[in-house]
Write a structure and sequence with these properties.
One of its GO terms (molecular function) is 6-phosphogluconolactonase activity. Keywords: Carbohydrate metabolism, Glucose metabolism. It comes from Alloacidobacterium dinghuense. This is Beta-propeller fold lactonase family protein. With 421 residues, the chain is mainly β. It has no helices and 38 strands. Strands 1-38-11-12-13-16 form a six-stranded antiparallel β-sheet, with no helix packed on it. Strands 3, 4, 5, 6 and 36 form a five-stranded antiparallel β-sheet that branches. Strand 11 (118-125) and strand 12 form a beta hairpin. The radius of gyration is 19 Å and the shape is globular.
Length: 421
């Protein structure tokens, strides 16, 4: 078991945000990152592990890849801020699985925890590696009671776990979430291991400063009575206790969510209207909708990432099988298409997009339909993309999401992350 030595390598995943921080390694290497791609076709699910060439961005699977995901239907994955641990949510088993990451990129299963509700769909970790946020598609009907289901739909759930930075374990040996207090639909104050959120949740985002967390959901009410999406906003203290701010209407089918590294702007994709919505973040998690209209995307956007420098946004469009690239107005947060191509082709059905955290120079998508990973190089001056050497790269069947850690003799970017279905 060849575990990674303690060091300040940094967090990256499906949704990549961040602050710049110069770091170096002690030994030279042409490997800039290791990339981890979850795949859902087999039972149990699988994790393909790749090393990334620092010159070309080309991916090469390491020995023994793919690895078991520890459960069925893995749909989201992130890495810890120190690069020592990988976390995977398995939707069909209602589980979170922790893996230790070796210095050679190999992964070793450690802890498995079950969530209070069912069908976990998204997760993220704060930058200080003290809190893990997980979103369940269905919450329990009452604290400690049976959970909702597709036959009896109900709200989702946001769960917060304390993280042991030494072991990477969540919730201690008993996988215990932080206890939360909320007022239920009957105006009764409840104490539980979660807080209820909107129906059909799709993504979660924690600000880089750790003060607020946002959840996108496709219905504030059951789909039979509502066609409006929402963002649920919460303040969070250092122990993980959530305080609701308010719920904001957001398009009709919010599908992914991300914020910029300066904690000023929040972005939400709408897969029904094919658009990108912008908010300004005020103090204590308050959102103001942009005065500018939403920006058009290609067909069925499902994933979003902000580059670690905070200059560009990349949106993966599942039906169009491409990426849209946008430059961020640093004063208003308004995105505008980068010069050049209006869209960049990926493999079929991109379900996830990330910018590697080592140099912030390469971007990857997990392509669900054709079982590939697409790699591109990011021009930091323009935001434009060009295809990587030998891209696309084969993955295990039906890849769903991706995460990465930096490695080798190069500076890195500090990033915060979100990942989900």
């Amino acid at each position: 078991m060849k575990l990674r030595k303690s060091g300040r390598t940094l967090l990256a995943t499906a949704t990549i945000l961040g602050l710049g921080l110069g770091l170096t390694s002690c030994s030279p290497s042409n490997t800039v990152d290791f990339v981890y791609v979850t795949a859902s076709k087999n039972n149990p699910g699988q994790i393909s592990v790749y090393k990334v060439d620092s010159e070309s961005g080309a991916l090469t699977q390491i020995q023994d890849s793919p690895y078991p995901s520890g459960g069925r239907n893995p749909v989201g994955t992130i890495t810890s801020p120190d690069g020592k641990y990988l976390y995977v949510i398995n939707k069909d088993d209602n589980s979170i699985v922790e893996f230790a990451i070796g210095t050679d990129g190999k992964i070793y299963q450690q802890q498995t925890c079950n969530t209070p509700g069912s069908e976990p769909v998204a997760l993220t970790m704060n930058a200080s590696e003290t809190l893990l946020y997980v979103v369940d598609f269905f919450s329990p009907t009452t604290p400690g009671g049976p959970v909702y289901s597709s036959a009896n739909p109900g709200p989702g759930a946001l769960i917060v776990y304390p993280v042991d930075k030494t072991t990477g374990n969540i919730g201690g040996s008993g996988c215990a979430p932080v206890q939360q207090t909320f007022v239920d639909a009957n105006n009764v104050t409840q104490t539980a291991t979660y807080v209820p959120i909107g129906f059909q949740p799709t993504g979660v985002n924690a600000l880089a400063n750790g003060n607020s967390v946002f959840v996108a959901a496709q219905d504030g009410l059951p789909s039979a009575t509502s066609t409006l999406g929402v963002v649920d906003a919460f303040d969070v203290n250092s122990s993980g206790t959530l305080s609701p701010v308010t719920t904001y209407p957001t398009g009709t089918a919010p599908s992914s969510i991300a914020s910029d590294p300066t904690n000023r702007f929040l972005y939400v994709t709408d897969s029904r209207q094919n658009q990108l919505i912008t908010y300004t973040i005020l103090s204590t998690g308050i959102l103001n909708a942009s005065q500018n209209p939403p920006v058009k995307t290609d067909t069925f956007p499902v994933a979003i990432t902000v580059d670690p420098r905070g200059f560009y946004i990349y949106v993966a469009n599942y039906n169009a099988s491409d990426i849209n690239a946008y430059a961020i107005n640093q004063s208003t947060g308004t995105p505008s298409a980068v010069a050049g191509a209006s869209a960049y082709a990926t493999g079929a059905g991109p379900s996830c997009v990330l910018v590697e955290p080592g140099l912030g120079r390469f971007i990857y998508t997990a392509n669900f339909i054709d079982n590939t990973v697409t790699g591109m190089e990011l021009n930091p001056n323009t935001g434009a993309l060009t295809a990587n050497q030998n891209s696309p790269y084969l993955s295990a069947g039906q890849p769903t999401c991706a995460a990465a850690i930096p490695h080798g003799n190069h500076s890195t970017q500090a990033v915060s992350a979100t990942a989900g279905s």
